[in-house]
Design brief:
The protein is of the alpha+beta class. The protein has helices at residues 42-53, 66-69, 110-121, 143-159, 180-191, 237-249, 251-269, 308-315, 326-336, 389-409; strands spanning 9-14, 25-29, 33-37, 57-61, 85-89, 92-96, 101-105, 138-139, 164-174, 195-201, 204-210, 213-218, 221-225, 227-232, 278-287, 291-301, 323-324, 347-351, 357-360, 365-369, 374-383.
Length: 415
Amino acid sequence: MAYYKTEQYVVFLDSNEAEKHEYACLCGIGAIDLIKCNVGGALDRLESFQEEHQDWIFGYLGYDLKNELEPLQSQNRDLMEFPDLQFFIPETVVEIGVDQVVFHSYEEDPYELQKLFEKIQQQELRSDIKFSAQSPLIATDSKTDYLEKANAFLKHIQRGDIYEANLCTQFYAKEVELNPLKAFADLNASSSPPFAAYARFDNHYIISASPERYLKKTGRQLLSQPIKGTAARSSDPETDRQIKNDLLANQKERSENVMIVDLVRNDLSRIAKKGSVEVSELFGMYTFPQVHHMISSITATLSDQFSGMDAIKATFPMGSMTGAPKISAMKIIEQTESFKRGVYSGAVGYMSPQGDFDFNVVIRTLLYNAEKRVVSLSVGSAITAAAVPESEYEECLVKAAALMKVLVQQGIDFP
C-alpha cells in the first residue's frame, strides 16, 4: 500500500486470514472510469455502470441511499461531505492469496509488470512520522445527550413504534492532518478484523476495521452476517471466558440478535428463491482483540428474475445498523440522531467481472476529508425494551476505544 500512497483512487480490502473470504487481500488501484453521485438515482446509475463495464469495480455505498429505497429523508448536519456513492474501475487489481499474488492490469508488457512488482516489494511504511498538537476530538452528543436520546428510543419502543433501533453518535476533530496509511496500519494491527478496508477517493479516506459483513454474492448464493451482541474482553483468561459465556447467555443480546436475523431473513426473502432463506448459524461467538461479538449467518439463493443489484436494493441499509420494523426505525433514527451518517453505516467492497460482490458494514471506521481537514468516528448500540441507557453508552465507548487510540497516536487529544 505504501507504494500507492500518491494514487488518488485506491481500495485495499484485508480479511486478516478470516474464513469465508475469496481472498486474503484484494486491492484495486487507479481509476480508468468512475462514478460519483449523491442520492437521486445513484443505485440505478451504479447498476448501469456495472452492466456497461462488466469489470472489477471498487467503492462504497453511503447509508443515506436509504432515501432512494424508501420514503425517507436525511436532514442532519453533514461534517464530512462525502458523496453518497463512489465506485471506480481500477487500472490494476491485486489478488493476494495464501501462496500466490495475482495481478490484473491494463498494462500489457510483462516486463513492466515485473518491475512494478519488484518496486512494491521494496516499499516500507514509515512509522517515524511526527505530529504537532492538533485539535481535540469533540463529541457531537454529550453523555447526557446520548442518554436522553436512548430514553427517547425506549419511549418509542414502549409505544409500539419499534421493537429495536440502532442509536449512533459521532466524534470529530477539525483542522487536523491525518496520515491515512499510518492510521490504517495501526488500526488494522490492533484489531485484525475480517473486513478491514483502506479506501481513498481523491480527498476522501475510509479507514475501517470492520468486523461485520453486510452482503456477499457468489454465483446465485447470498450470505449476510449481522452482528448483534458485544462485550469488552478481559486480560485475565478465566475472566475473559466468563465474559464470553455471559454474552452468549444474555437474553437482551440474544433477543437483539434474533430481531435482526428475522429482519435480514425478511429482506432476503424479497429476492430469494422460495424456501431458500436459511439461518446457517445463530448466536455464533467470535473473539477479536478488544471485544467478543455474537454473529449470525443467513444464506439465500437469488431468484432467477433478480440481479445482484436487486439484492442490494432489497437489503440496504443493513438491518444491524437500522432496526425493526426497518422503515419506522430509520425514521426515528433520523429524527433523533445529531449527524448525517453518510459513509458510516454504509458498505465498502468490490464487484467482480462475473457480477459477484462482497461488502462490509462500515463500523469501527475513521472517515477523513483531507480537503476540509476533518476526521470523524461514529459508534452505536442497539436499543431494545431491555436496554439500560448507561450500559449502551459504555458499549459505544468500548467500540470506539481502538479508533480513539489511533487518533491519539496522530496527535489528536481528548478534552
